[in-house]
Inverse folding.
């Protein structure tokens, strides 16, 4: 029995993971997926779009199943919708948005309930998310490209709906390109949301749960709060203290540091597969004028010794900061971890703040010589002045940086996006097409981008961090930014992270980049670029592939060429 049987009340179709199944949609709106290439170390995703006819008087329950693959290779989740009252900034959208009016947007990936059942609601489209993990597949005996027939089925009180799929097996691994990916990990948000004491045993359990999902979704570089990060905090305000380095100020004015919590953080991250550590910013955001909040044991008791009231380049803070950095680097060297670290001065300084940024950086520049210092910024003057060796420009301001790096024969450029990157470029907003989010991986490959930063893996506060929000019903930071900017995972009731559709689209883009690197190793860069641009058009950051069909055709072209050239 297939979808084509029009007598059934329940309809279903196997569709791309890039499709967004809004409740008012229908399975027949989407092109069915009939085949897909898979690599030995790849996790691919698909969806089953399901809808019961409006004339169906019953709320029915269906069960998805797979035949042809071991059970450990296949998992199912349900795509849930979240409300958005700000899908896009007014007047700041383009053809790459699916819709811009407030409504329900498919985003959250939830475990199946009732022992694996899914609701089929009359007149409402739902989707089952499928993950096929080829790491768990037995590849022994497969020496060349071959086809594996499998099928997905929907069982209900009606005849079975069968959806066949051909897996085109490619017995090769997508390479590790060394690309660095960070979405800022906010441990204070976890303590606030779950109402647990900071760095209590329960907090550490939750942190580790979220770190595992962080890595599973393609991230390998984690924001590490040696001090409470001075990020997205209103002037004069404070976020909860999540300071990993304990400080003691002696009566003689000397500082003493305890790195036990930092060691636990690094060890926890290592267990989860994190490779690199972003040391939190040494100065406040948007200007580097002040110190982050720093708590210490003093002769007068435990108190804040630096914060908004502190002049970044005054007498006291630079003296403290130099003592801290020397102690930190000594400790990290003893662990063998210092070269795994990246450092920040201040986030998103503008051209008018260059002098202040340079003055603040100068207080510690000699100590960080030889280490990677990165900062998100969008004015190329910062780079050209020598203020930042590794700039992280937004993807809508990256062209001058690409040119500057090319002129100097340099590689190692990063990029980022946040709420301001809303027209033309890739982003992960809920209202955008999945293909648009995914296409950034192809852009990474063409321009040899070395790393990517996004500021919100799990930011659950509103603008300025005044209040905690509920991400299940408040996806905009209380009307601050378009839905999808502030977080890419949801906090489950059991202390685990639930993935979003968007973070998986980005992960698929990273896999595209890796597949391109593999193809380049087989046929060369020029031929690879020619093949890709024959499908996608000229690859530039200011224009994205936004359609599912074109994005899938692009990846199919890459995979087909890999299969053809793998044994040559």
């Amino acid at each position: 029995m297939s979808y084509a049987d029009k007598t059934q009340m329940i309809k279903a179709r196997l569709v791309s993971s890039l499709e967004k199944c809004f409740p008012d949609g229908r399975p027949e709106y989407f092109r069915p997926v009939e085949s897909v290439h898979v690599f030995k170390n790849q996790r691919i995703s698909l969806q089953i779009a399901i809808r019961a006819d409006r004339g169906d008087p019953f709320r029915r329950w269906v069960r998805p199943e797979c035949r042809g693959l071991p059970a450990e290779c296949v998992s199912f989740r349900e795509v849930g919708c979240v409300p958005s009252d700000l899908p896009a900034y007014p007047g700041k959208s383009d053809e790459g948005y699916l819709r811009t009016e407030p409504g329900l947007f498919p985003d959250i990936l939830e475990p199946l309930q009732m022992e694996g059942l899914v609701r089929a609601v009359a007149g409402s489209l739902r989707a089952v998310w499928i993950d096929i993990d080829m790491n768990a597949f037995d590849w022994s005996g497969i020496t060349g490209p071959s086809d594996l027939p499998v099928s997905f089925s929907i069982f209900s009180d009606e005849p079975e709906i069968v959806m066949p799929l051909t897996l085109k097996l490619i017995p090769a691994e997508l390479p590790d390109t060394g690309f660095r990916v960070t979405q800022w990990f906010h441990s204070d948000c976890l303590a606030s949301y779950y109402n647990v004491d900071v760095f209590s045993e329960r907090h550490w359990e939750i942190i580790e749960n979220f770190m595992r999902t962080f890595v599973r979704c393609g991230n390998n570089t984690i924001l590490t709060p040696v001090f409470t990060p001075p990020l997205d905090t209103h002037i004069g305000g404070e976020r909860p203290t999540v300071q990993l380095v304990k400080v003691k100020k002696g009566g003689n004015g000397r500082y003493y540091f305890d790195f036990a919590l930092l060691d636990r953080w690094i060890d926890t991250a290592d267990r989860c597969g994190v490779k690199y550590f972003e040391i939190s910013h040494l100065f406040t955001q948007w200007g580097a004028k002040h110190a982050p909040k720093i708590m210490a044991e003093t002769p007068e008791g435990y108190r804040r010794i630096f914060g908004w009231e502190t002049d970044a380049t005054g007498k006291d803070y630079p003296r403290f900061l130099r003592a801290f950095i020397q102690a930190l680097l000594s400790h990290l060297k003893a662990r063998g971890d210092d070269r795994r670290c990246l450092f920040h001065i201040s986030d998103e300084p503008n051209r008018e703040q260059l002098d202040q940024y340079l003055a603040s950086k100068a207080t510690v520049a000699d100590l960080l010589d030889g280490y990677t210092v990165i900062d998100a910024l969008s004015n190329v003057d910062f780079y050209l002045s020598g203020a930042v060796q590794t700039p992280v420009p937004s993807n809508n301001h990256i062209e001058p940086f690409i040119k500057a790096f090319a002129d100097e024969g340099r590689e190692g450029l990063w990029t980022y996006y946040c709420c301001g990157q809303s027209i033309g470029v890739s982003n992960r907003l809920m209202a955008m097409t999945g293909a648009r989010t995914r296409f950034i991986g192809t852009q990474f490959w063409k321009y040899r981008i070395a790393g990517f930063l996004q500021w919100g893996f799990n930011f659950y506060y509103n603008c300025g961090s005044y209040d905690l929000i509920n991400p299940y019903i408040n996806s905009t930071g209380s009307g601050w930014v378009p839905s999808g900017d502030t977080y890419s995972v949801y906090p489950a009731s059991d202390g685990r992270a639930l993935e979003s559709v968007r973070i998986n689209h980005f992960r698929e883009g990273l896999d595209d980049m890796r597949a391109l690197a593999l193809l380049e190793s087989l046929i060369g860069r020029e031929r690879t670029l020619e093949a890709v641009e024959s499908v996608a058009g000229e690859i530039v950051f200011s224009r994205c592939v936004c359609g599912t069909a074109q994005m899938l055709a692009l990846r199919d072209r890459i995979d087909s060429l890999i299969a053809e050239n793998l044994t040559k």
About this structure: The chain is about 25% helix and 25% strand. Residues 501-523 form the longest helix (23 residues).
